[in-house]
Amino acid sequence: MSSASFDVASIRSQFPILSQVRNGKPLVYLDNGATTQKPQCVIDAVSRFYSEQNANIHRGAYALSVEATDLYDQARASVANFINAGDSREVIFTRGTTESVNLVAATWGRENIAAGSEILLTVMEHHANIVPWQRLAESVGTTLKVVDITSDGALDLEQFEHLLSDRTRLAAFTHVSNVLGTTNPVKQLVQMAKAQGAVTLIDGAQAVAHGPVDVRDIDCDFYVFSGHKLFAPDGIGILYGRAELLDAMPPYQLGGDMIELVSFEKTTFRSAPDRFEAGTPHISGAIGLAAAIDWLGGLDHRAVAAHEAALLEHASHELQDIDGLRINGTAPGKQSVISFTLDCAHPHDIATILDSANVAVRAGHHCAQPLMKRLGASSTARASFSIYNTVEEVANLCAAVRNVVKLFG
Amino acid sequence: MSEELSDLYQEIILGHNKRPRNEQVLDPYSYKAEGFNPLCGDRITVYATADGAGKLDRVTFVGEGCAISRASASIMTTQVEGRTISEINKRIGDVIAMLSQADEPEMDLAVEGDLAALAGVRKFPARIKCATLSWHALRSAIENRSDTER
Ligand SMILES: Cc1ncc(COP(=O)(O)O)c(C=O)c1O
To answer: How far apart are CA B24 and CA B30, in angstroms?
Structure first.
């Protein structure tokens, strides 16, 4: 199942949490869409920072602060390299995907979206890529347009193109759906949006852990993601923005580290990225993120993708065999996320019974209530796979789901 | 299956889930409220009619929910009919306390019939809100406000 260049056992051995046993049962962690586990090298990088390198950045004239500043700057450069940004100035550290979207809405959005213009979203968006735009639209008096999905959970590309017009100021869409697993053809979507003069923002939260992302090839204006879904600490995330746009954007939060000169009469602001990073940032988070990126860089991403695709195929096949089980999202090229419902049991009950087998899945609306409504479900159960999951774990999942059917069926 | 799990999903609970009592809309009704669990998206609407003498003579529910929330709603509807509003308010408080407390409940479960079967939820902190959802909704209904259970 795994290729010669990919040794899942050796990957697993680098994640201390995966050796956990509860009531005699090994942890089967299948909630990677919510957050991924952290390899020892990331844990060590954070711990090393606090035990050996901790100082505030951009401050002291002493060696420790200079070293911490270097590490923070290097982390930015690693991220830039990871997504192939043209310049590390285009990489802004935030708290995560949610804050990145809010930042763009509150700065670029406030300046550029006015009454009469339109914002284009898709029905598969996470609340983080809906609510900030809805708030903005309400306050300036614009409308949201929403692109539907087809029956297999792919984005309706015809409708996407149809809903775009010269009134569309922004098209904001997810790279990979956290519920359906659908991988959107982002490069093509950006092209269509650009042809109408729209700015594009891509929610990469579910994409970055599954394969290389090249923001220049995609040619988007903004790309956002969270560290914690990429084997890195929580509380750190990224906003990539094209320099041209960033330089024209007003600041987000105001305070230290983002100013040029302050007097009580007037304050001038630094340029990107500092302009958008008021206050002391999450330094150890940035360093942890860089460590995670380094770690991923050491793996053969083709082998990783093949491993995850094999898990997805195997799990889909096995689950589909279960009576009354329905999988939401079967678009070709989807990522290793399986949302499902059972005729006989509610997702919450499924998750509880799986939990008693120490199989961790998520149940609920996955912060995508409009999508749930579209699917005609109030919630689903979701198993989302990562690099370290195994065929044996898929078997555990399926056995546990069969137990649910036995109990409820 | 673990002992705790079979305690949670007893036959009584599974039975109420499959064949709930009083699962219907009441029209007209004297009281109505929706209980919503924003975490899982579950939604239960509770209806009640009063008999003019301060007693509830019918309580029903409709909605989407897991086995625990449906069974709890079903059991609730059989518990409160014919009682006065103040008796019911006390009852709601006692049941919510029983469901939410990890230590031995004050309620004498031996005399509680089907309600006792719900006590298994106390070992599942993530599920307690499912069990209390309809009770909170009934309380809101008789206080005449809509409720979002957090
Ligand atoms: C597609 C998508 N967008 C946005 C988010 C929000 O990410 P965060 O909570 O890290 O800000 C998530 C995470 O749940 C997600 O899956």
So the answer is: 15
Residue of B nearest to A363 (CA): B40
CB contacts, 8 Å: B10 with chain A: none
* CA–centroid distance for A16 within its chain: 23
Cis amide bond preceding A281, omega within 30: no
- Region A64-75: mean pLDDT is 96
Which residues of A are known catalytic residues? 367
Domain count, chain B: 1
Which CATH architecture best describes the domain A8-30+300-408?
Alpha-Beta Complex (3.90)
Q: Classify residue B148: in a domain, yes or no.
A: no
Mean pLDDT by 10 residues, chain B (150 residues): 87 95 94 87 90 89 94 94 90 94 79 90 91 95 58
Per-residue pLDDT tens for A37-46? 999 999 999 9
Q: 10 Å Cβ neighbour count for A344?
A: 19
- How far is Cα A188 from Cα A127, in angstroms, rounded to an integer? 23
Per the domain annotation, does B131 fall within a domain? yes
Q: Are strands A143-147 and A118-122 parallel, antiparallel or unpaired?
A: parallel
ipTM of the complex: 0.89
Domain definitions of chain A by residue range: 8-30+300-408, 44-297
φ and ψ at A41, to 5 degrees? -65, -30
A243-280: pLDDT as tens digits: 999 999 999 999 888 888 888 888 888 899 999 999 99
User: Are A92 and A72 a contacting pair, CB within 8 Å?
Assistant: no
User: Dihedral of CA A370/B127/A178/A400: which sign?
Assistant: negative
A147-184 pLDDT, tens digit each: 999 999 999 999 999 999 999 999 999 999 999 999 99
How is domain A44-297 classified at the CATH fold level?
Answer: Aspartate Aminotransferase; domain 2 (3.40.640)
Dihedral sign for Cα B98, B101, B106, B111, please: positive
Look-up: residue for tokens 């995966």? A18
The encoded tokens of residue B16 equal 């109420």
For an interface test with B, the pick among A348, A358, A365, A371 (most B C-beta atoms closer than 10 Å) comes out as A348
Per residue in A171-228, pLDDT (tens digit) is: 999 999 999 999 999 999 999 999 999 999 999 999 999 999 999 999 999 999 999 9
**Domain span including residue B34:** 3-143
Substitution site in A126, A238, A372 for ligand 1 pocket (most atoms within 8 Å of beta carbon): A126
Return the CATH number at B116. 3.90.1010.10
> Which residue from A32, A94, A97 has its CB within 8 A of the most atoms of ligand 1, so it is best to mutate?
A97
The Cα A168–Cα A171 span in angstroms is 7
**How far out from the chain centre does Cα A270 lie?**
28
Helices and strands (H, E) in chain A, number of each type? 15, 17
Taking the Cβ of residue A341 and every Cβ of chain B, the question of whether any pair is shorter than 8 Å is answered with no
